[in-house]
Amino acid sequence: MTTLYRPISDPLEFDTFGCHPFENDPATPDRTTRQVFLRRQVSDWNVNMKDGSQLQFWGFKDPDISGSDSPWPSKTIRVKQGQIFHCEFKPSKGAHTIHWHGIEPTPMNDGVGHTSFEVKSSYTYQWCAHQAGTYLYHCHKNTVLHFEMGMYGVLIIDPTTTSPDRNNPQYLYDPFDPASTTEAPGITVGAPYAAESILVFDDVDPRWHKLDHNAGMCGDDVGLDKFNPTYFLINGVHNGKTQTDTRTVTKATAGRNVLVRLANASYSKLYVTLEIDAWIVEVDGRPLRSNSAKGAFGRPKLLPKGTRLEVAVAQRYALWIPKIPRGDYRITGSFHHWVTNRKHFDGEAVARITAA
């Protein structure tokens, strides 16, 4: 047997991967005709917190939309299944990336700077929307800090059968042949929904929002292993206001189907409970369906009312409420410490669905 000796690590390679990722503005490889085009730029602003203090946040603004300079979460992106998507990204302040979390594009378009490059001035991301589902997009520059700073948004891929008229019913994924077996007992989960609730849960540690853009990247200990949130929110709305704010209250028509999309942007162990029975029909952008012709990823699972659903960091769920009865239903997020699993002080935020 021959033994080949080599250095344990290449210092230059380590430096490029960890401390100083490669910055560049290449042309988009294999660029092709697009069906969807949008722009994103990096923005920073101050946010008034629950106790009257101000914290700095960063996010992705849309320069084509007036008044979009303080987006938290960043504006939701919707693409149809099968479409070619282009996003022209200009960081404007330092190097950044956009990582399309759950999408599987080429490495050049995945937005992970440590394995490709960070955008210095401008780059156009390109990918094809293959699987209908719920995803995220976020910065992958100094990821753990920049995600906490607010650089994230929801990305939704709608099936090709989705109506272009947003006032008409929508679909979570392409529906079954009516003659097929239902997706879950007594209901057809692939049926259209008439109301949609998109809820992003987040927590904020004010100490982190005073850190530098590159804090911790080069091995310096800035305390990123210590996270002590004091603010708890849904869709950027502080708890205490989430049951009245239009961003966290969904109005539905009684007797119609409702879809709830959940995402955890917090660094807590998040438990979500609903005051109504629901079906888990999608996890991390992958549908739970038993129709082998459409993809048998697994069967929908009943989530009885009051049952605690654990949602991990950056995880997404889609919950289906068939023919919602008339009434008012709370969706409660409980934020717990990752190590002790104890609920954080004031660590609860409640959204609502009102069916009339």
Question: Which terms would index this structure?
Answer:
single chain, mainly beta, Immunoglobulin-like, eight-stranded mixed sheet, 4% helix
Describe this structure in words.
By secondary structure, the protein is mainly β. The chain has two domains: 8-158, Sandwich (Immunoglobulin-like); 178-356, Immunoglobulin-like (Sandwich), CATH 2.60.40.420. The protein contains two helices and 23 strands. The protein has helices spanning 11-19, 143-148, and strands spanning 23-24, 36-48, 54-61, 74-80, 84-90, 99-101, 118-119, 123-128, 133-138, 152-158, 195-204, 231-234, 237-238, 249-252, 258-264, 269-274, 278-283, 286-287, 301-303, 309-311, 316-321, 327-336, 343-355. The strands form five sheets. Strands 11, 12, 13, 15, 17, 18, 19 and 21 form an eight-stranded mixed sheet that branches. A five-stranded mixed sheet has the order 14-23-22-16-20, with no helix packed on it. The chain has a four-stranded mixed sheet with strand order 3-2-5-8, with no helix packed on it. The termini are far apart. The model has no long low-confidence stretch (mean pLDDT 89). It comes from Skermanella aerolata. GO terms for molecular function: copper ion binding; oxidoreductase activity. This is Plastocyanin-like domain-containing protein.
Task: Compile the SSE list and pairings.
Elements: H1 11-19, E1 23-24, E2 36-48, E3 54-61, E4 74-80, E5 84-90, E6 99-101, E7 118-119, E8 123-128, E9 133-138, H2 143-148, E10 152-158, E11 195-204, E12 231-234, E13 237-238, E14 249-252, E15 258-264, E16 269-274, E17 278-283, E18 286-287, E19 301-303, E20 309-311, E21 316-321, E22 327-336, E23 343-355
Parallel strand pairs: 1-7, 2-5, 4-10, 11-15, 14-23
Antiparallel strand pairs: 2-3, 5-8, 6-9, 9-10, 11-12, 12-13, 15-21, 16-20, 16-22, 17-18, 17-19, 17-21, 22-23
